[in-house]
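A student in our group prepared the protein record below, which I am reviewing. This is what I was given:
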Amino acid sequence: MYLPGTVFPNNEDEQEEETCRQKELTEQIIETGSVTPEGGKHIIHCLTIVGQVEGHYILPPQNKTTKYEHVIPQLVAIEQDPRIKGLLIILNTVGGDVEAGLAIAELISGMKKPTVSLVLGGGHSIGVPLACSAKRSLICPSATMTIHPVRMNGLVLCVPQSLSYIDRMQDRIIRFVTQNSNIDEATFRSLMTNTGELVTDVGTILDGERAVETGLIDRLGSLGDAVQELYGLIEAAEQEERV
């Protein structure tokens, strides 16, 4: 199996080295859902956040998950590796653990390297701050994003302290999203508490165009646009370093 951008070697030693490299890339995709291709204009790392973001509790095996204990070390390695010039985050997630998702989003937003996110299919629930965490965010026209209040399952003590905890957690999400996008707090809260759109829930579903109109996402686009956007940020950063 050869990935895009593969340079075919001329001698046996180079061929063996290239085969080993391709094997490592393939294993990287299978094990972590990420890849660092080296055949492009700049070396970038592609990180996928798909299915449900898994937090402190292991989800059933039939669930497609993104494990935060896999993502966090990758982000640290990307930030420290001088060869990698930028990070592309591909999102198609239903949401998941709030604290795990917010932890990943905080790490991405704090990276010094150029970052671009692309929402494909859906970026729902905690996927919203994950999409906003990159320095530039894109969404496909056919993709959607669901904004709703924080919800909890399992045993919940019906005391004022529980409601206060949920309210503070919700404020953390609102603060992060408004600080990392162009949407204002009043608009985001209005979308979050809308009672006239979802049949069995409170909240709002935004398609790609509406997500851009509200300021939640920077622009419409697809894979090629996201890669070019990342290349532009990389080149701008390199130019600043030279000055």
